[in-house]
Write a structure and sequence with these properties.
Elements lengths: L2 E3 L8 H5 L5 E2 L12 E2 L15 H5 L6 E3 L9 H4 L13
Antiparallel strand pairs: 1-4, 2-3
C-alpha cells in the first residue's frame, strides 16, 4: 500500500521533510506535470520499518490531504502487520 497526496495540499513541504525513503516530491518534480506534490507508489513503504505510522500523514497540517491509495503488489502494508490507522477506518480503495 502507499499514500497519495490529494489536490487540497497546501504545498507546505512537511511531508517531504518527513519521508524516510524519499518517495515524495514537490510540484516542480511531479512526473505527471500536475501542480501538486506527488508520491511515488513504488517507493512508498508507508513507513513500515521506519515509523509507527506514515510520517507524512502525521506531519501534514491539512486533514484529508494524505490518503491511502490502492494496494501495490509486493509492497509492505500496515494491514499485513496489524497496525491500526489513525482514525480506525480502512481507507484502502478496493
Amino acid at each position: 500500500m502507499a499514500v497519495k497526496i490529494t489536490d487540497i495540499c497546501i504545498s507546505c513541504g512537511s511531508c517531504i521533510d518527513e519521508c524516510p525513503v524519499g518517495a515524495i516530491v514537490d510540484d516542480v518534480d511531479n512526473p505527471t506535470g500536475e501542480d501538486t506534490y506527488y508520491v511515488y507508489a513504488d517507493k512508498c513503504v508507508e513507513c513500515v520499518g521506519h515509523n509507527d505510522e506514515p510520517a507524512c500523514a502525521n506531519a501534514c497540517p491539512t486533514d484529508g490531504c494524505i490518503v491511502w491509495s490502492d494496494i501495490v503488489e509486493g509492497q509492505p502494508s500496515r494491514d499485513d502487520i496489524g497496525a491500526n490507522l489513525r482514525d480506525g477506518t480502512n481507507p484502502v480503495v478496493a
